[in-house]
């Protein structure tokens, strides 16, 4: 392997072989096809992924030529092996806000060990402690689906969609922390883990077994995490002390990022290929049914009602009516996000809107105004 | 008995400038919570005159812009919080009294029920952004405790 002429001209003393007698390749010294000297400028807060998306390095191809882990924009050898990626179209995984969400996720990480004021936990009435532990048991169970699902698909995503993969890595970390914080809360105040039932696992299985990544993200980010986001919002009404309120606020922030990715990914996919919408609808038809079953699960719904009521005495008087009001919020938020994602569910949803007194005409009018 | 903090001036640009200054002077607090990138408007309906409207621009760990806006311009923000001045006063009074918002007076609790202060957005993504940055926004308004109590202290000295 001879040293390239342009390299030899500038660095005439380079050896052709290593001390062990191996031939050396100094071609990278010439820069070759890669873009050299782009000098991205840091933002006030530092050098972000948006800052370095300059020149060709900022171009994310619709259909990458390579299927390797090579860095996008590098001078990639033609004999680079195929890594077996199956998500090779940008529309398969991309979202217009994914770089911003990655930076936001990195900047807003928190610690379930350090940032929750565990020392302020106080002894609670037995019914409230049991209800909190039941809720935490279920949440600790279901949060990990949002780690497992991206992990299942990530190694199949073309590495040129690096920013999307990086964002999903933050989601995996977020959800590990959520499982951790709810497990810790269940154990930390004199209680423990309570019931886990089949209907929870049915929903999780529906999500993890989705046939395509876009179906999976519709089920996970739009439906599942959308509902959980609204549940965490309700933490203000559910939480018996400031400790749980803090837990719910911090988990809510993370969850909202994941929902923002999913909503905009589906939008991106549907804009590029309107036929994808039907594939998503089919998944949501099935998923909404499983979600309703989870909402009606006797453990989850009774624990929530107990917490909302502030105790066993007022479950019927306060707990269930409040729970219904909050369920209405969950469903209207979800349907609004579906509109934004470009998959209107207003005419197709399997959610029990009538049962909860949700006026579909009002929702239509509100959507039309946007 | 300590004097009660006054919330008489919360519907002024000066009050929100003070909140922005408090945030910008406390990087350690907001660095822990992480960056925020949000255009938020606040609308306070008054009985005797036009509503007070202000747009707040949050970037990094700072509130960089505080601008009074006209009717309808809140819709240009990513999301906005809207309620009667009396309810806003009650929220800030709770913060001033307790050092930070308690139970039903947090931004999240108020907007969850939506009967006093509502969260609005023309785009559901803006609506979700309020939740992505909720703890930062809560700390932003909780910082009013020092401002309101300092005013009382200055008035009584």
Walk me through what this model shows.
The complex is a heterodimer of chains A (370) and B (157). Chain A has two domains: 1-39, no CATH class; 90-369, Ribonucleotide Reductase, subunit A, CATH 1.10.620. Chain A is mainly alpha-helical. The termini of chain A are far apart. The relative contact order of chain A is 0.10. The model of chain A has no long low-confidence stretch (mean pLDDT 92). In chain A, helix 4 (126-143) packs across helix 12 and helix 10 (242-272) packs parallel to helix 13. Chain A has helices at residues 5-10, 90-93, 98-107, 126-143, 145-154, 162-188, 198-208, 213-233, 235-238, 242-272, 276-295, 298-309, 315-341, 360-369. By secondary structure, chain B is an alpha+beta fold. Chain B has one domain: SCP2 sterol-binding domain (Nonspecific Lipid-transfer Protein, Chain A), CATH 3.30.1050.10. Chain B contains seven helices and five strands; from the N terminus they run ααββββααβααα. Chain B has helices at 13-24, 27-33, 85-98, 107-113, 124-132, 134-142, 144-156; strands at residues 36-45, 52-60, 62-68, 79-84, 117-120. Chain B has a five-stranded mixed β-sheet with strand order 3-2-1-4-5. In chain B, a hairpin with a 6-residue loop joins strand 1 (36-45) and strand 2. In chain B, helix 3 crosses helix 7. The mean pLDDT of chain B is 93. Classes of the chains: A mainly alpha (370), B alpha+beta (157). At the A-B interface, helix 3, helix 9, helix 10 and helix 13 of A face helix 4, helix 5 and helix 6 of B.
What does the secondary structure layout of this molecule look like, with pairings?
The complex is a heterodimer of chains A (370) and B (157).
Chain A: H1 5-10, H2 90-93, H3 98-107, H4 126-143, H5 145-154, H6 162-188, H7 198-208, H8 213-233, H9 235-238, H10 242-272, H11 276-295, H12 298-309, H13 315-341, H14 360-369
Chain B: H1 13-24, H2 27-33, E1 36-45, E2 52-60, E3 62-68, E4 79-84, H3 85-98, H4 107-113, E5 117-120, H5 124-132, H6 134-142, H7 144-156
Parallel strand pairs in B: 1-4
Antiparallel strand pairs in B: 1-2, 2-3, 4-5
Helix pairs in contact in B: 3-7
């Amino acid at each position: 392997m001879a040293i390239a002429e342009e390299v030899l001209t500038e660095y005439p003393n380079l050896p052709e072989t290593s001390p062990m007698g191996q031939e050396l390749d100094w071609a990278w010294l010439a820069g070759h096809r890669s873009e050299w000297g782009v000098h991205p400028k840091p933002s006030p807060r530092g050098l972000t992924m948006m800052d370095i998306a300059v020149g060709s390095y900022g171009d994310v191809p619709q259909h990458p030529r390579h299927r390797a882990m090579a860095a996008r924009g590098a001078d990639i050898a033609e004999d680079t092996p195929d890594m077996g990626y199956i998500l090779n179209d940008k529309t398969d995984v991309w979202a217009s806000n994914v770089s911003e969400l990655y930076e936001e996720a990195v900047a807003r990480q928190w610690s379930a060990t350090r940032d929750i004021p565990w020392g302020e936990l106080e002894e609670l009435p037995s019914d409230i402690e049991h209800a909190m532990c039941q809720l935490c048991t279920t949440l600790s169970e279901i949060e990990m689906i949002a780690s497992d699902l991206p992990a299942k698909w990530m190694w199949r995503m073309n590495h040129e969609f690096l920013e999307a993969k990086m964002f999903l890595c933050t989601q995996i970390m977020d959800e590990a922390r959520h499982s951790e914080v709810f497990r810790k809360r269940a154990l930390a105040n004199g209680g423990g883990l309570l019931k886990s039932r089949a209907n929870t696992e049915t929903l999780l299985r529906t999500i993890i077994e989705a046939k395509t990544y876009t179906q999976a993200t519709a089920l996970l980010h739009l439906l599942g995490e959308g509902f959980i986001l609204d549940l965490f919002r309700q933490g203000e009404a559910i939480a018996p002390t400031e400790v749980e309120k803090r837990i719910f606020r911090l988990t809510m922030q993370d969850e909202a990022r994941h929902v923002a990715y999913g909503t905009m990914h589906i939008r991106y996919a549907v804009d590029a290929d309107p036929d994808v919408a039907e594939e998503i609808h089919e998944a949501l038809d099935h998923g909404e049914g499983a979600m309703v079953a989870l909402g009606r699960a006797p453990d989850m719904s009774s624990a929530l009602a107990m917490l909302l009521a502030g105790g066993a005495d007022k479950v019927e008087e306060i707990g269930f009516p409040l729970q219904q009001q909050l369920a209405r919020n969950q469903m209207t938020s979800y349907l609004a996000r579906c509109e934004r994602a470009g998959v209107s569910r207003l005419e197709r949803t399997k959610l029990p809107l009538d049962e909860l007194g949700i006026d579909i005409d009002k929702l239509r009018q509100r959507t039309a105004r946007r | 008995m300590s004097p009660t903090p006054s919330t008489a001036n919360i519907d002024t640009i000066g009050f929100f400038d003070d909140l922005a200054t408090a945030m910008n002077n406390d990087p350690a607090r907001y660095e822990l919570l992480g960056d925020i990138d949000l255009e938020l408007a606040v609308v306070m309906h008054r009985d005797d005159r036009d509503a007070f409207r202000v747009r707040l621009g949050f970037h990094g760990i700072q509130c960089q812009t505080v601008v009074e806006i006209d009717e309808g311009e809140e819709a240009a923000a990513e999301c906005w919080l809207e309620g009667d001045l009396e309810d806003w006063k009650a929220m800030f009074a709770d913060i001033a009294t307790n050092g930070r918002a308690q139970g039903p007076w947090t931004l999240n609790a108020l907007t969850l029920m939506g009967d006093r202060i509502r969260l609005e957005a023309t785009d559901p993504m803006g609506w979700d952004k309020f939740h992505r940055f909720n703890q930062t926004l809560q700390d932003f308004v909780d910082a009013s405790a020092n401002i309101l109590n300092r005013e009382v202290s200055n008035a009584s000295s």
